[in-house]
């Protein structure tokens, strides 16, 4: 009985430890097919709705910094800054980001243990899936003119599911930041198009 409880407890602990919240973006992404805009971008607010406490603040500040650096490095916009209460030039767009859903979950593949036992670990050595990485983002981007009047508001959604194998165990850690970066950048480009 104690052995079963211990196994269940360890299994639940492993599942809890695999949940991660990453604000990592590929800040060097440069889209080739987008023309430069003579617009100043001001990042006003970034909010993650489904988080609370210190983790929320840390993630929001990290995302704010990463998005600013990303938008600067793409050279699409004339300038990218954080918003303050000071007057902004007439060719400016203020952006608010609201992450309605921001989930990154790493879960043990449900077939991993049974197939590993049934095939005497042959499943593992032949490259069977170990964990699955699931990333779900729902982002509302609002753009405002220099008088703080709403120009455009749009909700974007993306779902990514990646399997990780023994021969490439860090695959999702490379792919997901790239996909999140493209998603956020495309969202900003769509909202800033007039």
Commentary on this structure:
- By secondary structure, the chain is of the alpha/beta class.
- It has one domain (40-192): Lipoprotein like domain (Double Stranded RNA Binding Domain), CATH 3.30.160.150.
- 37% of the residues lie in helices and 36% in strands.
- It has five helices and six strands.
- The protein has helices spanning 2-17, 53-74, 112-118, 122-125, 171-192, and strands at residues 19-20, 37-48, 77-82, 92-108, 129-144, 150-165.
- Strands 1, 2, 3, 4, 5 and 6 form a six-stranded mixed β-sheet that branches.
- Strand 5 and strand 6 (150-165) form a beta hairpin.
- The longest helix is centred in the N-terminal third of the chain and has 22 residues, at 53-74.
- The protein is elongated and about 70 Å long.
- The mean pLDDT is 87.
Sum this structure up briefly.
This is Lipoprotein. The chain has 194 residues and is an alpha/beta fold.
Features:
194 residues, alpha/beta, Double Stranded RNA Binding Domain, 6-stranded mixed sheet, 5 helices, elongated, Lipoprotein
């Amino acid at each position: 009985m104690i052995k079963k409880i211990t196994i269940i407890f360890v299994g639940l602990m492993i599942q809890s430890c695999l949940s991660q919240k990453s604000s990592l973006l590929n800040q060097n992404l440069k889209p080739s097919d987008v023309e430069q805009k003579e617009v100043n971008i001001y990042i006003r607010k970034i909010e993650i709705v489904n988080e609370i406490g210190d983790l929320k603040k840390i993630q929001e500040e990290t995302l704010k910094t990463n998005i600013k650096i990303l938008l600067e490095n793409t050279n699409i916009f004339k300038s990218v800054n954080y918003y303050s209460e000071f007057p902004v030039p007439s060719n400016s767009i203020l952006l608010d980001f609201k992450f309605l859903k921001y989930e990154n979950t790493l879960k043990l593949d449900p077939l991993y243990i049974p197939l590993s036992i049934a095939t005497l670990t042959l499943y593992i050595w032949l490259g069977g899936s170990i964990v699955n990485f699931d990333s779900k983002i729902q982002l509302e981007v609002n753009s405002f003119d220099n008088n703080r009047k709403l120009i455009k508001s749009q909700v974007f959604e993306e779902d990514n599911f990646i399997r990780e194998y023994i021969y490439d165990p860090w695959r999702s850690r490379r792919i997901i930041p790239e996909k999140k970066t493209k998603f956020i950048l495309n969202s900003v480009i769509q909202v800033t198009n007039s």
